[in-house]
Fold these 3 entries.
Entry 1:
Amino acid sequence: MADTSLPANATEKRAARVRWLLLAPALLVLLFAASGPLLITLVYSMLTPGDYGGVIWQPSADAWFNVVLQRDIFDDTLSWSDAHLSIFWRSVKLSLMTTVGCIIFGFPTAYFIATRPKKQRDLWMLLIIIPFWTNILIRTFAVVELIRNEGTINTVLMWSGIIDAPIQMLFTEFSILVGMIYVYLPLMVLPLYASMERLDFSLVEAGYDLYATRMKVLRRIILPLVKPGVVAGSILVFVPSLGAYVTPRVMGGGNQLMIGNLIELQFGQGRNWPLGAALSITLLAIVMVALMVYVRTAGSEEPKHG
Amino acid sequence: MAKRFDIQRMPGFKTVAAVTFVLLYMPIFLLVIYSFNAGTSIAIWEGFSWRWYVSAWDNQQVQEATVRSLIIAFWASAISTTLAVLAALATTRTPKFKGQSAVFAMINQPLMVPEIVTAVALLIFFAMIKVATGYTGLLYLIIAHTAFCIPFAYLPIRARLTGMDLALEQAAADLYAPPFRVFTRITLPQLWPGILAGAMLAFVISLDDVVITEFVKSAGQDTLPTYMLGQLRRVVTPEVNAISTVLLGISVTMVVAFTALSKLKT
């Protein structure tokens, strides 16, 4: 290149300087509006709440206690915080159910797309990608219009005389589940399709030649081969489900809280910023564990074909 | 003749796929259709009309929120794309360098950390700055959006850069073109589809953001999505459908254009 006249060491140093100069603006913005605030949140979780929101700069471990415990206001005894635990449990339960639901709908869909002629596949995938890039609020709202008491489903059912009174679907755990499956389904189909597209069907053929049934081929040949896609899709769906805020807020109507809504509550009516910070860090920790499990599984489960 | 045995067929899969596509698009179609409803209901059809588009257009809050959304999305995508180009130039086609994984972790942080956690962290940090400086303008939202748009702009640009042929740049350098000249005359003309794709992605991501905006905005700084979120608490009229349809149109156009751009040959 141009600076061959310089000793190798100096060239390297120069390249490193240029590299960091080019990276500096992006890293500064990220430090200012992503990584830095996260560290401050960690600090806030160990302070005392102020009376009108904010904090008093006095170290306190109360927020971390209050994540899962509560202190009785009369006799100071500690007990499990049922309210928080039930919200954690609902979040984990609904996120797992969302993941399973997305597999049930997403697996056959991805398989269907992957077995289309090559030219058609991109078009089918575009149909999956378009909802993915449209506003989550709009998609949630579209489902709300369908299932609310005055919504399409109830109107049609009542008009046709099947029911007399609208079925209450909105503002239940069921509606949150439906909303989250609807919103996160593309995240399942994308990685599933990526692994199915590379599926070697000669192995499937070999299975049939050896008199395997369709069920057996699916379970013993296809599933093991696309397992990395299933794992990736599950993580991609589970992680945002766990931190979901918009869908449970719109679908749950304030009765069915998930962790995201519990966090928001601490910055609104709760006026307990340290607790909100501690809950945020807890959520982040759970997500990081899930991602680490994924990296581990993905590392050891490299597809054995192709 | 016996029917040929199709090894790719799985019983029931086609049906589930068909159901999935119908379920995926039916709510969106209904949303769009009822935005043209002449009545005030979002479930009972009373004839075609543009009235909700007119009423949204005349609604001052919607006008202000739209302008605000566009200003934020414009600056956030412009700045994040510029920063992403620089970062992509620094991190592609170089041997593994010290601190590389930390750099990638930082760039990808907005993709890994749950949005609600980032939102809360920004609320805390910006509240401190607001108290210290007294400034409560749009800059907070622009910086917040810029940060989470960086990975979305970075990925397509980096992909394009990785796929590019090094020979032309080397030839230019061999002919004593200074590095900056090589960049503007050789690299940039080849890179522009990636840059445009990254900028569009960032624009859509910024335009659609609800959670972070909801926590960072000061009073009276609603963007279109947060305005809609507020409206959902009240009795919903097809006006929300009309706004949604317009936003939907923008997103779909951008995604189709993005897909076409990413397919352009290097």
Entry 2:
Amino acid sequence: MDENIIKIDSVRFYWSKKSRFKIFVPNFEINKGEKVLLLGESGSGKTTLLSLICGFLNPLSGSISINGSTINKLSSKTKDEHRADNIGIIFQQFNLLPYANVIDNIVLPLYFSKVRSANVTNQRESALNLCKQLRLPDDIDQYKASSLSVGQQQRVAVARALIGNPSLVIADEPTSSLDTDAQQIFLDLMFEQISNNKSTLLMVSHDRSLAKRFDRLIDINEVLTRED
Amino acid sequence: MLLKLSLSSLYARLVTVGMTVIAISFSLMLYMSVEKLRTSAYTSFTDTISQTDLIIGARASSVQLMLYSVFRIGNATNNITWESYLDVVNKEEVDWAVPISLGDSHKGFRVMGTNKDFFARYKYRGGQSINIDKGYLFEDLYDVVLGAGVAEKLGYDIDTPLIVAHGLQSFSEHDDQPFRVSGILEKTGTPVDNTVIVSLAAIEAIHVDWSTGAKIPGQETPIEEIRKMDLTPKNITAALIGVKSKLTIFNLQRWINEYPEEAMTAILPGAALQELWRVVGVVENLLLGISIVVIFTTLIGMTAIMFSSLSERRREMAIWRAMGASPRTVVGLLMLEAIFISVLSILLSVILLFFSLSILQPWIDYNYGILVNVEMLSLRDMYVFMTFIFASILVSLLPAIRAYWFSINDGMTIKI
């Protein structure tokens, strides 16, 4: 059981009874340390699945277990804590608080997670260290998040997702706002860091060409069925 | 950390937040200055006369008697005879009495005939006496003493000659008997400032050749002759009375009101001032009401601004949630913002208030005779501030609840 970082069993979800958008996930498992690419077009239910895994949404039935705890049984407060402790999230874009400086953005999850902040002795130093390894400028701590390029912002988001070594990193189309060259550089750096951290990666994309970097490729349609 | 980020978030929206703060602080300042003016006007008003136990005059309402005898507004309905006045003065309860004779004017300023006791007995602002600033009180029959406001506005100094006009807006002047300024009083902030004071005998003297409000044609008594005449007044307008024992005030008042030989009224200045204030105070209450409405309007404005910034901040809230912040924390951040905006507005409004008051104070004092006290904030102000902060928390609940729903429903979706 401990082998699975994500284990979803017979999960059913819809917004409301009238909603045309109803999904059913019979069984979905990801092992610890795996790097998984989840393929799917927009509107296929990817984001809903990620929201369920992160605990933003509650399934109507079934169970979702993340790193050993069944999150749909937790109170919303513990669920938020659980998310802070276990999951680093990278969004498609607009990852950072534009008004805060880069370092504050990176160390923000540590504020909400005791577990992750216990893994970090010097917050500023390890944030700077991550920045360095992600090839961000040396004087990155002088920047406001809003003054960075999109590519740099996404790399800062990686640093934020990885600080304090969460066991799972979830990335929702992190490269879609980057051009091809920047995509490759970004993915190289992200993979390097995730391997260093021995984290599990679940990345969502519609770009099949990225598959070669991953341990496993899953089509969203194999994971969930739509019940219209 | 949260506080720091919340502050930098506000700082990033400096223009919007700044305008909100300015709007709120102006409305708060409006409220506070109305409140300050109101209390200052009230104290100035009720401090106009003190330590006088009774004011007597011809039968009239207490407000009317107060208005013409102390504030020199309006006219006396009638005079009281000198004999009646002496009857009152000779009552054993009476400690002192100052007769007042009104009716003439000089360039729009009221001329008041009285005796030197007036300067010793008339007290204002809790027992302050009138002091002479320049010159001396009237020695000669044709000496006048000017209130500070009269001297200042007319540019008069010691020895300036002046002519008293008969009545208040009349073209007939007592030009045959010119006066000269013998003294100028210090500023008091009371109607005394705008009064030309002469002796009772002088009032009598300028009316020697007059009968029932008009000059008797062809009759002109030389000044030398007038000086030799007995100038004891036949009538006076009103009188200020002090009693020996406060316990006898009501008895004396009743005695005067029931005086059989002439219809007289005796009023308690304090009670009459209160009654008068109830009439005047309506305007102030109206102003106060308006400024409270203004505060509410700006609070609603603040809520509107928070609402409109919500959509752009929806992304930001998704980030907070992804980091592990609970929906409550997100709501807390919004409320913190509202509290910060209101505290900042309060500080700014206090600065604005003291700044504008210290600039406007001399002007208000000069033009309206109201001394606005630029002092520390009262407990009542603090209470108002606390209420305001509480109200701003309350109104910020609306956008905060909306944000709560956003942050629950948005999940991983970042709205663009």
Entry 3:
Amino acid sequence: MSTLAVHDHGVVHHEEGHEHHHDTFITKYIFSQDHKMIAKQFLITGITMAVIAMTLSILFRIQLAYPDKAFPLLETLLGRFAPGGRLDPNFYLSLVTIHGTIMVFFVLTAGLSGTFSNLLIPLQVGARDMASPFMNMLSYWFFFLACVIMLSSFFVQKGPASGGWTVYPPLSALPKAMPGSEMGMTLWLASMICFVASSLMGGINYVSTVLNMRTKGMDLWKMPLSIWAFFLTAVLGVLSFPVLVAGVVLLIFDRSMGTSFYLSDIVLNGKVMPFEGGSPILFEHLFWFLGHPEVYIVIMPAMGISSEIMSVNSRKPIFGYHAMVYSLIGITVLSFIVWGHHMFVTGMNPFLGGVFMITTLIIAVPSAVKTFNWLATLWRGNIRFKPAMLFAIGMVSFFISGGLTGIFLGNAALDINLHDTYFVVAHFHLVMGSAAIFGMLAGVYHWFPKMFGRLMDEKLGFLHFWLTFIGAYLVFFPMHFMGLDGVPRRYYAFTEFESMKQWLSVNTFITWAAIMSALAQVAFLYNFITSIFWGKKTTQNPWQANTLEWTTPIERIHGNWPGEIPTVYRWPYDYSKPGAEQDYILQTTPLSETMSSNLPHDFEDNPVGLEEHTKWVNTHSNQEVK
Amino acid sequence: MMAQIQEDKYNLAPKKFNMWIFIFTSFMFFAALTSGFIVYTGGREHAINIILPRAFMYSTTVIIISSITMFIASRAAKRLEFGKQRLFLWLTLALGVLFFVIQIYGWSILIKMGVYFINPNASQSFIYVFTGMHLIHIFAGLLLIINTLWRSYKNVPQAKNLFGMEMSGIFWHFVDIIWIYLYVFLLLNQY
């Protein structure tokens, strides 16, 4: 509620606020319960995992570009996984599996939501910390444990899981099916259970904090879009991850106890297995009931972050704030009823396929609303091309170009041709891979000062952006054509297929583009690490943004605000408001201090304020007449 | 400033809200399992094909009674009748353990009937999955009750006592309702 009558917004500083608790190294940096520190832990672990996953992708890209060539260096590095300098085919499958798993879950779910929900939810809604800081700490440590278990699978004899990140049975359910299905798969499942525990603890906290701990005046319609996005992402996670657990529990029973939930009529190495009556389709249903919301868990935080950054750096209110929120809600709801589009060619009833096709294509509506709103926000804005802004615009670009191919893939008939080809690979790497990574990087550049009190280097940021942006398009765009030509994904080499040989040159090109993009990340890593220690010191509000996190001191104290938590009087997007003294008005500025820029619709639910406003306008226009 | 952080620590409403959200996640877990059952039986025309042992009916009675005793304990805690609170918490705990035992006994009867967990007809395996996963929740609920009991003997502030009471109460009623849901679900799918 914004009233003209409220004047008590001045934050009272209690100078006697000594630190009464003594942080040791362990409680401050390791088992920290401070959301800002936990956010940094998530970010640094997420970046580490991203670098690992990227290295894995470069390894299998080398194989795809030079299927007949031996690289003795590979044998030196990978040992038995690359005998004679050529990747072992089973290890190739492990690489794509673990690359997918790490990127989807560890980087773009935990690394993205974990970092920015933790950092921004308490700071932007005006809370001292999360609903349960202890659970928040546990959430990080379960995530860390999951990372360690997942990576440890590289050190078991038969190598990591290799049945694809979707771990479909029967491959995943029969330890003897392939080398990766033995210990590697067991570790994958163990890691995933820790991961889900982490993700649920985090998500529960985010939802509870947003709903219960907003500061005075911060009603839901005054929340920044980033908070809306994190909130709805957490809701998605809380509702869909348990379903994955259910699927995984049954898978574990099939693997290690001999039940037949997913298995039937199997002959393994010439031996008839005792399983009957099960259905692998059941696993696909359970998996994709999580799996589809999961892609929105990945992209929605990136959307929220980009909305925020694009508004700040266009110096304009976000276009269609309410429409943005409603489309996020729409995406959240729809995401639960589209999972069948991953299963069009599993022998699904064509009528059911039609239903899933319709729900899938309806998601294009809220997505398009968001896209147009982002473009309209840029339209005639006073744009500041900061690295964060470039990455946010890049996110929109990838979301458009990847989203368009989604319309083809969402079509049950076209999917007969396109499923399991490089077309799919191109689609999701653009729309959720690159777009979400760009959203995450935008967030890192934008909130780096809030996390570390220093600024990142802009020139390196530009270099990083352009190389990555061009590189990502060079990598993924040609894949569309490969897919249209029927080149299947996850193949070790195409040398044995006459019709696919012609794509070898394209594969070589893609690999070099990928290597270029990977090298571009060195610019980011160098920038990130050196800026933490030696970056330029930041001012309190380096981007002249409106949201609450920039009212906290640079030093990042425990409890966030030294005195009282500030009260909020307006929405977060009052940029370049006509009649205002500056081109931004903090959310904590009461309407009574900005008489010259107030508009009648600022007083929609406040008749007293409207009267004051009208009176003020009348007296001032009278003066002008005199 | 520290005083305000302390104040936040005693603001227990968001923590209680966490419990509600956790209940949603748990509910989704069981909804997924039962949906899995429906997909499975629908696709392959398998069914449970047995009459459930009577033991599950007894356990259902026991857990409903335990919900009532839990409610009485909660009410007693609010009215500052701590002796009564402890007595009924002990009763709830005992009934919870009894429920646990009856469920295991139910399994033994199933095994005597020739209905095994490792079974080519997975709809019969599902009986074990439902009850087993539910027993894990019961176990968690028992731990919560023990924690609340322990607190009530340690003379913690009433706010915390009530908070513990409410947390374990919400969770216990939830596992009760989930069991009724699972039992009715199984009954409807017996044949």
